[in-house]
Design brief:
The chain is of the alpha+beta class. The chain has one domain: Glutaredoxin. The protein has helices at about 5-10, 35-40, 65-75, 75-85, 100-115, 120-130, 140-150, 155-160, 165-180, 215-220; strands at about 45, 50, 55-65, 90-95, 190-195, 200. β5 and β6 (about 200) form a beta hairpin. The chain is globular and about 45 Å long. The two termini are about 25 Å apart.
């Protein structure tokens, strides 16, 4: 856990934000097959994308059907990955929540099931690329199979089977507990800091890369 110990962080910071939803997905979609190109060659360990030695950690609490999360993933993440993650400066930890309804939980379970195969981030990014309108039943088994089959090296049948595994149940419970302890009540919510120290809440100024780059640059300079 990059946010360990949770109790210490909870004592140091309280985040109050509103759950946002109810709108169509937005943000420019990246081209087909760009997910593989974006993430190819970057280490994935559990929930974390990036080198273990990266000096700065960025933690994202997100809901996979939240349109604002989708906008950030499509608009900001490609730049953050190319500029900071691929270069070994920053690693990103995905903390999935399911605020908005059943589709949120189904999508999250698929991403967490892919974690065991080292492909969580591929599934996360691909789901945001295919994101539908909230609570319309857009996260179907057929969609998840399409996502899984599009990820090189991922066994889709295993991913679908593992969606109800004890490991996935434990991961959902762990993040739900952590979010309550530190006061996360809306998505997306970000924390960042030195990888060897405490992480602090980041108030992003926009959902583009410029909304979080000053924070990352300041941490790297420090």
């Amino acid at each position: 856990m990059m946010l360990a110990p949770a109790a210490a962080l909870a004592a140091a910071i309280i985040v109050v934000s509103a759950t946002r939803g109810g709108s169509q997905p937005s943000g420019k979609r990246i081209q087909p097959n760009a997910v593989a190109r974006l993430l190819g060659g970057i280490p994935q360990q559990g929930l974390v994308l990036g080198r273990a030695s990266a000096p700065v950690t960025l933690v994202e609490f997100a809901d996979l059907q939240c349109p604002f999360c989708g906008e950030w993933e499509r608009g900001a993440l490609p730049t953050i990955v190319r500029k900071y993650v691929r270069t070994g400066k920053v690693k990103i930890e995905f903390r999935g929540l399911h605020f908005l309804g059943p589709d949120s939980e189904t999508a999250l379970r698929a991403a967490l099931a892919a974690r065991a195969q080292g492909k969580l981030w591929n599934v996360v990014v691909d789901l945001y690329e295919r994101q539908g309108t909230e609570n319309t039943g857009w996260v179907t088994k057929d969609l998840l199979r399409q996502v899984g089959d599009s990820v090189h090296g991922l066994d889709t049948s295993t991913m679908l089977r593992d969606m109800s595994s004890p490991a996935v149940e434990a991961a959902i419970k762990q993040t739900d507990t952590l979010a309550r302890e530190i006061g996360v009540s809306g998505t997306p919510t970000f924390f960042a800091g030195p990888s060897t120290g405490k992480l602090s809440f980041v108030k992003v100024s926009s959902l583009g890369p410029q909304g979080i780059e000053p924070t990352l640059d300041k941490l790297l300079a420090g």
